[in-house]
Amino acid sequence: LPDAKNAFEAAQVLWNSRAFTQSLEYAQEASALYQRVVDTTVHMNVFRSLELIAAILLHTQEHDVAISNGSHALAIAVQLGGFDCAEAVSAHSSLAYILTGSGDFLAAFKHIRAAIYLTQLLAGPRYAEICNLYYKLGTLYSEMVSDEPMKFGVIALRFYKCAMEIPSNDRLFEGMVARSAAMIMALMGQLKAAVDSEKRAYATYRNILGGDHHITKNSDNYLQHYMKAAVDQGTRLLAECKKRQEEAESDAAAGKIKAEEEEKDNLKKKKKSGKKKKNK
Q1: What angle do CA 153, 98, 174 make, to 5 degrees?
Q2: Model-level pTM?
């Protein structure tokens, strides 16, 4: 066990330093050593090794193998502590992240939903980590906004709203959610709402990071862009509204003139008909 433990710790150190190839070798060695010693795959340290292997493989773009290891880790977690254990929540979250990276959003949705359900079951509906899961779910839908902005944008905003309603005790996270929501609103053409949301994000960043931080400056740039776009949109809508009003007034005037002409024609016809009767 000491050799397996040392291999796993070395894998974590190399993972943190982004030496993915060496980290993968040590993580695989740790997994093999643990399985050899305990003579089974159903062991907590095997689960941890597989989760680390899956994360490394995702970063090396080996998605299929990463999904396989993530699924194996989830199966071990359920065998160890049941479907509603903390390790199962972690495995669902990790697998959702891997599936998102591979582009399989439908499967990722299912695992994030499972993680949200289990977290609420284990820790209650106000647990701080749930807001992060809702944010991930909203971000998944935001990835598809370019395909169908109104459909997926509305869903993404709904989950961002859920994320903001749960106390996170992390002001920077709240700013990040507000900014992500502003981007979706802008894509959907809701520029006034986008300005309001970006203002919240900018105020949060400025209060915590200061006005000179690059994140604050970036938020300010987006805010100025949304404000200009909102003014342009308002001007355009006002012009379109004025044009429609003028067209309506023109149609009404034309209809009135036509009605008056038809009335005159009817009067002339009645007069001619009356003269013919008198002559008879």
Answers
A1: 45
A2: 0.72
**pLDDT tens digit sequence for 239-272:** 666 666 666 666 666 666 777 677 776 776 666 6
pLDDT digits over 208-241, tens only?
999 899 999 999 999 999 999 888 887 876 666 6
The answer to whether 112 and 92 are in contact (CB under 8 A) is yes
Residue 178 to residue 156: CA distance in whole angstroms? 12
Name the burial class of residue 147, with classes exposed (0-12), middle (13-18) and buried (19+) by CB atoms within 10 angstroms of its CB: exposed
**Nearest alpha carbon to residue 56 among 87, 30, 85:** 30
> In this structure, are residues 180 and 145 in contact, taking their beta carbons and an 8 Å threshold?
no
Let me know: does 14 contact 26? Beta carbons within 8 Å.
yes
Q: What is the DSSP string of 163-182?
A: HHHS--S-HHHHHHHHHHHH
